[in-house]
């Protein structure tokens, strides 16, 4: 996966993000390929960090 493809994957996950209860600004979303991405966002919705997670 190229760097741009990974950015595209993060943007896909961002578009369907779900807040993780009990966290502080942590959201999880899925790409169209089914890659689960965890994101930490600022209060105004900007991404601080994003990374793929391993499904259990």
Automatic annotation (TrEMBL):
Residues annotated as transmembrane: none
Top-tier EC class: hydrolase
Phylogenetic classification of the source organism: Bacteria, Bacillati, Bacillota, Bacilli, Lactobacillales
Gene Ontology molecular function: any one: hydrolase activity
UniProt superkingdom: Bacteria
EC number(s) reported in the record: 3.1.-.-
Limits of the Bacterial EndoU nuclease domain: 2-53
A Pfam family assignment: EndoU_bacteria
Key words, A-Z: Hydrolase
The protein's name: Ribonuclease
